[in-house]
Design goal:
Blueprint lengths: L3 H10 L8 H15 L11 H8 L3 H13 L3 E2 L7 E2 L4 H25 L2 H19 L3 H18 L3 H23 L3 H17 L3 H22 L2 H20 L1
Length: about 250
Protein backbone atom coordinates (compact mmCIF):
# COMPACT_ATOMS: atom_id res chain seq x y z
CA UNK A 1 0.00 0.00 0.00
CA UNK A 2 0.97 3.65 0.12
CA UNK A 3 3.53 5.14 2.50
CA UNK A 4 3.04 8.10 4.81
CA UNK A 5 4.12 10.83 2.35
CA UNK A 6 1.91 9.38 -0.39
CA UNK A 7 -1.11 9.27 1.91
CA UNK A 8 -0.42 12.79 3.17
CA UNK A 9 -0.41 14.27 -0.34
CA UNK A 10 -3.31 12.28 -1.80
CA UNK A 11 -5.49 12.69 1.28
CA UNK A 12 -5.18 16.46 1.08
CA UNK A 13 -5.45 16.88 -2.68
CA UNK A 14 -8.41 14.50 -2.96
CA UNK A 15 -9.97 16.07 0.16
CA UNK A 16 -10.52 12.60 1.61
CA UNK A 17 -10.99 13.88 5.16
CA UNK A 18 -14.16 15.62 4.00
CA UNK A 19 -15.71 12.38 2.78
CA UNK A 20 -18.13 10.38 4.89
CA UNK A 21 -17.32 7.05 3.22
CA UNK A 22 -13.80 6.00 4.33
CA UNK A 23 -13.77 3.01 1.96
CA UNK A 24 -14.22 5.30 -1.06
CA UNK A 25 -11.21 7.27 0.14
CA UNK A 26 -9.12 4.13 0.62
CA UNK A 27 -9.89 2.91 -2.90
CA UNK A 28 -9.22 6.34 -4.43
CA UNK A 29 -5.94 6.59 -2.53
CA UNK A 30 -4.80 3.12 -3.60
CA UNK A 31 -5.73 3.54 -7.27
CA UNK A 32 -4.40 7.11 -7.33
CA UNK A 33 -1.02 6.05 -5.92
CA UNK A 34 -0.74 3.22 -8.45
CA UNK A 35 -1.50 5.62 -11.30
CA UNK A 36 0.95 8.26 -10.10
CA UNK A 37 3.77 5.78 -9.44
CA UNK A 38 3.29 4.02 -12.78
CA UNK A 39 1.98 0.63 -11.66
CA UNK A 40 -1.16 1.47 -13.62
CA UNK A 41 -0.17 2.86 -17.01
CA UNK A 42 -1.87 5.55 -19.14
CA UNK A 43 -4.74 4.02 -21.11
CA UNK A 44 -4.90 0.87 -18.95
CA UNK A 45 -8.38 -0.43 -18.14
CA UNK A 46 -9.56 -0.32 -14.54
CA UNK A 47 -11.65 -3.40 -13.78
CA UNK A 48 -14.36 -2.52 -11.26
CA UNK A 49 -15.04 -6.17 -10.48
CA UNK A 50 -11.38 -6.83 -9.64
CA UNK A 51 -11.24 -3.73 -7.47
CA UNK A 52 -14.44 -4.77 -5.69
CA UNK A 53 -12.91 -8.13 -4.86
CA UNK A 54 -9.67 -6.57 -3.69
CA UNK A 55 -11.45 -4.29 -1.24
CA UNK A 56 -14.19 -6.81 -0.42
CA UNK A 57 -16.98 -4.42 -1.28
CA UNK A 58 -19.70 -3.82 -3.83
CA UNK A 59 -19.03 -1.95 -7.05
CA UNK A 60 -20.70 1.23 -5.77
CA UNK A 61 -17.77 2.48 -3.61
CA UNK A 62 -15.37 1.54 -6.42
CA UNK A 63 -17.32 3.57 -8.93
CA UNK A 64 -17.49 6.54 -6.55
CA UNK A 65 -13.73 6.36 -6.02
CA UNK A 66 -13.08 6.25 -9.75
CA UNK A 67 -15.45 9.17 -10.32
CA UNK A 68 -13.48 11.13 -7.71
CA UNK A 69 -10.26 10.38 -9.58
CA UNK A 70 -11.93 11.32 -12.86
CA UNK A 71 -12.72 14.77 -11.45
CA UNK A 72 -9.00 15.23 -10.78
CA UNK A 73 -7.91 14.13 -14.25
CA UNK A 74 -6.38 10.76 -13.29
CA UNK A 75 -9.13 8.51 -14.68
CA UNK A 76 -11.30 8.58 -17.81
CA UNK A 77 -14.87 7.25 -17.66
CA UNK A 78 -16.91 7.06 -20.85
CA UNK A 79 -20.30 5.53 -21.59
CA UNK A 80 -20.30 1.82 -22.50
CA UNK A 81 -16.57 1.53 -21.82
CA UNK A 82 -14.51 0.43 -18.87
CA UNK A 83 -12.93 3.17 -16.81
CA UNK A 84 -9.26 3.61 -17.67
CA UNK A 85 -6.19 5.51 -16.59
CA UNK A 86 -6.10 8.94 -18.20
CA UNK A 87 -3.64 9.26 -21.08
CA UNK A 88 -2.57 12.88 -21.68
CA UNK A 89 -1.89 13.85 -25.28
CA UNK A 90 1.40 15.49 -26.36
CA UNK A 91 -0.41 18.83 -26.47
CA UNK A 92 -1.80 18.25 -22.96
CA UNK A 93 1.76 17.71 -21.71
CA UNK A 94 3.07 20.85 -23.39
CA UNK A 95 0.19 22.92 -22.02
CA UNK A 96 0.61 21.57 -18.49
CA UNK A 97 4.32 22.26 -18.38
CA UNK A 98 3.92 25.71 -19.90
CA UNK A 99 1.55 26.66 -17.09
CA UNK A 100 3.74 25.01 -14.43
CA UNK A 101 6.84 26.80 -15.68
CA UNK A 102 5.24 30.22 -15.31
CA UNK A 103 3.60 29.51 -11.96
CA UNK A 104 6.77 28.04 -10.48
CA UNK A 105 8.82 30.99 -11.72
CA UNK A 106 6.46 33.27 -9.81
CA UNK A 107 6.71 31.00 -6.78
CA UNK A 108 10.52 31.14 -6.78
CA UNK A 109 10.54 34.94 -7.02
CA UNK A 110 8.13 35.26 -4.11
CA UNK A 111 10.09 32.73 -2.07
CA UNK A 112 13.20 34.90 -2.36
CA UNK A 113 11.23 37.95 -1.23
CA UNK A 114 9.27 36.42 1.63
CA UNK A 115 10.93 33.31 3.10
CA UNK A 116 12.80 33.93 6.34
CA UNK A 117 16.12 32.46 7.37
CA UNK A 118 14.56 29.67 9.44
CA UNK A 119 12.26 28.71 6.58
CA UNK A 120 15.16 28.52 4.13
CA UNK A 121 17.05 26.39 6.67
CA UNK A 122 14.06 24.04 6.74
CA UNK A 123 14.14 23.80 2.95
CA UNK A 124 17.89 23.10 3.10
CA UNK A 125 17.24 20.17 5.47
CA UNK A 126 14.58 18.80 3.15
CA UNK A 127 16.88 19.02 0.13
CA UNK A 128 19.69 17.29 2.02
CA UNK A 129 17.33 14.40 2.74
CA UNK A 130 16.34 14.33 -0.90
CA UNK A 131 20.03 14.03 -1.86
CA UNK A 132 20.24 10.84 0.21
CA UNK A 133 17.15 9.44 -1.54
CA UNK A 134 18.52 10.41 -4.97
CA UNK A 135 21.89 8.82 -4.25
CA UNK A 136 20.09 5.65 -3.20
CA UNK A 137 18.01 5.56 -6.39
CA UNK A 138 14.72 5.75 -4.46
CA UNK A 139 12.47 7.19 -7.17
CA UNK A 140 9.22 6.98 -5.18
CA UNK A 141 10.72 8.34 -1.96
CA UNK A 142 12.43 11.20 -3.79
CA UNK A 143 9.34 11.99 -5.83
CA UNK A 144 6.99 12.39 -2.86
CA UNK A 145 9.63 14.37 -0.97
CA UNK A 146 9.89 16.69 -3.96
CA UNK A 147 6.11 17.11 -4.09
CA UNK A 148 6.07 18.01 -0.39
CA UNK A 149 9.03 20.38 -0.87
CA UNK A 150 7.16 22.41 -3.49
CA UNK A 151 4.00 22.38 -1.38
CA UNK A 152 5.99 23.77 1.56
CA UNK A 153 7.49 26.46 -0.66
CA UNK A 154 3.98 27.46 -1.73
CA UNK A 155 2.92 27.74 1.90
CA UNK A 156 5.93 29.90 2.75
CA UNK A 157 5.24 32.59 0.15
CA UNK A 158 1.88 33.39 1.74
CA UNK A 159 -0.09 33.78 -1.49
CA UNK A 160 -3.26 31.66 -1.11
CA UNK A 161 -4.36 32.28 -4.70
CA UNK A 162 -1.09 31.01 -6.15
CA UNK A 163 -1.16 27.96 -3.87
CA UNK A 164 -4.76 27.19 -4.83
CA UNK A 165 -3.91 27.30 -8.54
CA UNK A 166 -0.85 25.11 -8.03
CA UNK A 167 -2.92 22.64 -6.00
CA UNK A 168 -5.56 22.49 -8.74
CA UNK A 169 -2.86 21.35 -11.17
CA UNK A 170 -0.99 19.03 -8.83
CA UNK A 171 -2.98 15.82 -9.27
CA UNK A 172 -3.03 16.23 -13.04
CA UNK A 173 0.74 16.56 -13.09
CA UNK A 174 1.81 13.97 -10.51
CA UNK A 175 1.88 11.08 -12.98
CA UNK A 176 3.98 13.12 -15.42
CA UNK A 177 6.35 14.32 -12.71
CA UNK A 178 6.93 10.77 -11.48
CA UNK A 179 7.49 9.60 -15.05
CA UNK A 180 10.07 12.34 -15.53
CA UNK A 181 12.02 11.26 -12.44
CA UNK A 182 11.93 7.61 -13.54
CA UNK A 183 14.23 8.36 -16.47
CA UNK A 184 17.84 7.24 -15.97
CA UNK A 185 19.96 9.97 -14.41
CA UNK A 186 17.05 12.28 -13.64
CA UNK A 187 17.22 11.99 -9.84
CA UNK A 188 20.76 13.36 -9.73
CA UNK A 189 19.89 16.20 -12.11
CA UNK A 190 16.74 17.03 -10.19
CA UNK A 191 18.39 17.26 -6.78
CA UNK A 192 21.17 19.38 -8.30
CA UNK A 193 18.44 21.71 -9.56
CA UNK A 194 16.91 21.93 -6.07
CA UNK A 195 20.27 22.77 -4.51
CA UNK A 196 20.99 25.51 -7.06
CA UNK A 197 17.51 26.94 -6.54
CA UNK A 198 17.93 26.97 -2.78
CA UNK A 199 21.32 28.65 -3.06
CA UNK A 200 19.79 31.40 -5.22
CA UNK A 201 17.09 31.87 -2.59
CA UNK A 202 19.68 32.07 0.18
CA UNK A 203 21.56 34.69 -1.83
CA UNK A 204 18.28 36.58 -2.36
CA UNK A 205 18.60 36.48 -6.14
CA UNK A 206 14.99 36.34 -7.29
CA UNK A 207 15.73 36.63 -11.00
CA UNK A 208 18.16 33.71 -10.87
CA UNK A 209 15.79 31.59 -8.74
CA UNK A 210 12.96 32.12 -11.24
CA UNK A 211 15.23 31.24 -14.17
CA UNK A 212 16.53 28.12 -12.43
CA UNK A 213 13.11 26.70 -11.63
CA UNK A 214 11.89 27.49 -15.16
CA UNK A 215 14.88 25.63 -16.62
CA UNK A 216 14.29 22.67 -14.31
CA UNK A 217 10.66 22.51 -15.42
CA UNK A 218 11.65 22.52 -19.10
CA UNK A 219 14.09 19.66 -18.47
CA UNK A 220 11.38 17.73 -16.66
CA UNK A 221 9.05 18.15 -19.64
CA UNK A 222 11.71 16.87 -22.01
CA UNK A 223 12.30 13.84 -19.80
CA UNK A 224 8.57 13.03 -19.89
CA UNK A 225 8.47 13.34 -23.66
CA UNK A 226 11.55 11.12 -23.98
CA UNK A 227 10.06 8.51 -21.65
CA UNK A 228 6.91 8.44 -23.78
CA UNK A 229 8.83 8.52 -27.05
CA UNK A 230 7.24 11.85 -27.97
CA UNK A 231 10.47 13.62 -28.78
CA UNK A 232 11.22 11.18 -31.57
CA UNK A 233 7.62 11.31 -32.83
CA UNK A 234 7.59 15.11 -32.88
CA UNK A 235 10.92 15.17 -34.66
CA UNK A 236 9.68 12.72 -37.28
CA UNK A 237 6.48 14.72 -37.74
CA UNK A 238 8.46 17.94 -38.24
CA UNK A 239 10.66 16.13 -40.74
CA UNK A 240 7.65 14.92 -42.72
CA UNK A 241 6.10 18.39 -42.64
CA UNK A 242 9.31 19.96 -43.92
CA UNK A 243 9.63 17.33 -46.67
CA UNK A 244 6.04 17.88 -47.77
CA UNK A 245 6.59 21.62 -47.83
CA UNK A 246 9.71 21.16 -49.96
CA UNK A 247 7.85 18.97 -52.45
CA UNK A 248 4.98 21.44 -52.62
CA UNK A 249 7.38 24.28 -53.36
CA UNK A 250 9.22 22.32 -56.05
Amino acid sequence: MTDQNTRLVLERLLRLRDRREPLVGQIAEWVGADIVEGRLEPGQDLNSVDLSRRFETSRTPVREALMLLEQEGLVEMKARRRPRVAAPTPQDIRDIYQVRRNLLSMLAGLLVERAGGEELAELRTRVERMRVLADGGDVDGYFWSHVLLQERMAEMVGNPTLKQILDSLTLRTLMLRHLSLSRAGRLAHSVDDQERLLQACEERDGELASALIAGATIRAQRAVEEQLGLGEQDGAARGRKAANGHRAAS
